[in-house]
Every structure is written in C-alpha cells, then in structure tokens.
Amino acid sequence: MQGYFQYIMGGGSILLVFCLFMVSLCKEFWQTILAQGFGMGIAMGFMFLPSISVLSQNWKRRRAFAMGFAVTGSSIGGVIFPIMINSLLAKKAFGEAIRDTAYLVLGCSVAINLLMRASPPPPKPPGAAKVEPLKFFREPRFTLAATGAFFVAMGLFVPLFYIQYFLTIKGVDPTITTYSLAILNAASVFGRTIPNAIADRVGPFNVLLPTVTLSGACVFIMFAASSSAGAIVFALLYGFLSGAYVSLVGPAFASTATHPSEIGVRMGLPFVFIGAAALIGSPIAGQLVIRTPTTFTAPVVFAGCSMLFGASVLFFARRAQAKAKGSRRI
Fold first, then answer.
1. Is the confidence at residue 43, as pLDDT, over 90?
2. What residues form the membrane-spanning segments (predicted)?
3. Range of the domain at 157
C-alpha cells in the first residue's frame, strides 16, 4: 500500500461521487445496477480497506479503539442518510434529493483525502522473507478466522436489510418502522467503540468471539419484535452487537501479523471472503422470505444459524491464535 494510498483513495472518492450523481439520472433498472451496484461498490471497496489499514499502521497501543472509532462513521451515516433522504423525498424529486446527498458525500471525500496519509512501515529485519499472501492460508489461525468471518458476514446483514419489511408485515407502528434502521445504526456507534476499547486491553479475539455469539443469538429475538417496544429493544441490541463485529474483525486479523508490512494483506484477503458472504447472504434470505412471507421464520433461522456456526469456527481460530502467540491476550 505504501506509495499508492493517495491514488487509491483519490480514485475511489472520484468514482463514488460520480456514480452517486449518475444514480440521480437513472431511468432504467440496469442503469441503477451499473451506477449504484457496480460503480459505488467498487469505489467503496477502494476506500474502506486502505483507510482501515492505514490506521492499523499508525496505531499500535490503542489500535482496536482507533479502528473502531473510525468505522463509527458508517453508523453515523446510517443514522443521517435515511432521515435525510426521507425528508428530501417529501419535498423534492428523486434525482434532486440524490444530488443533494452527493454534495454531502463530495464534502466528506475532500476531507478524507486532505486528512489521511499513509506512513511507511518500519524496515524489515535483515534476511526477512518477502510477504507471500497465499502462505497465510497455511496458518490454521488465519484460515479458521477467515472461514468463521465468512459465515458470520453471510448472516450479519440480513436483519439490517429486512428489519423495516419485517416490522411492516408485523404491523408495528409506521413511525417506529421508519426509524428502526436509524435506531439500529445509532446503537452501532457504541458497539463499535466500547468493545474495541476493551479489546485493546484483553485482545481483539477475546472480545470478538462473545460479541459474535451474542449477535447470532440476538437474531432469534427478532421473532419477538412484533410491537413497538420489541422493535426498539431488538434494534438497540442487534445494532450494538453487530457493530462490535464490524469494528473488531479488522483488528483481529491485524493481530495475526508478524510484521507491520503484513497488516494490509492479512486484512485484505479475509475481506474478499467477507464481501462475498455479504453479497450472497441477503439474496438467499430474500428467497427465504418468499417461502415464509408472514412468519419470517426461514430467513431469521438462516441468519442466526449462519452467524452461530461462524462463531463456532472463530472459537477454534482463537485457540489457534493463542497457541501461535503463546498468550491468552489475543
């Protein structure tokens, strides 16, 4: 990443803003898929991982908290943008409303590129081997962690995508339904900072494992979210717990590195699998919604079981990491 960070972030920022403006002009479904699905997806991929990797290079003592604090931005955006879009759409046409949000994204992108800089990693010791990414998969701790993260991610985003639809079919107050995603994201702000502060003291794997397990169990509480009170409780709990996974998975993989020069690769490779899991998880849940449209049983069971299975794999990853490090603080 050294030497290319500014190009990656700058290119991703330009592509993101351009595609968002293009979304405001879309008239056909294929145009939306091209601009929002492919274009914005590629742009966000360019921007997310390098920005997190830079933090992991600059912070060592409070690395988990720094990375968790950084990703609270997406939670805050998850609160602001739904409310902003709903308010704009009540007053303006779709295209104009999207362009207003694009200007906000443009301002944030300018700030990103002015504030973030990559620092060169410390020199390797003499005779150190060149980083070979595929060799990392020969390490049980790395392979198990990547596998566990895959299954967790496959179920993690299902409640986020379908919570409003679920509450609608359950007859929950429309106001609560509208703001349920904002409530979930607001709780996620605390889930991405408090567990990370603890992780700096006890190790990221030691906090990641229980929060992922509780997240998977919490998915089944969705069945009880058939009232306004139940919906708020579920949104708060799941927002906090799922936020912990999003913010801790990066520090967990970074902790497997034996040298700072490995951090970017050790984080980048698992995020390929995490991204693929997130891509296929929600469409699978969508097909399951069709099978149980009124009870929502199938998608909830799918998401919860996928996350709990991933947590069980992460349990063995944690054991392998403890063995490799010779310490319980992992």
1. yes
2. 7-23, 29-52, 64-85, 142-164, 176-195, 207-225, 231-255, 267-290, 296-317
3. 134-330
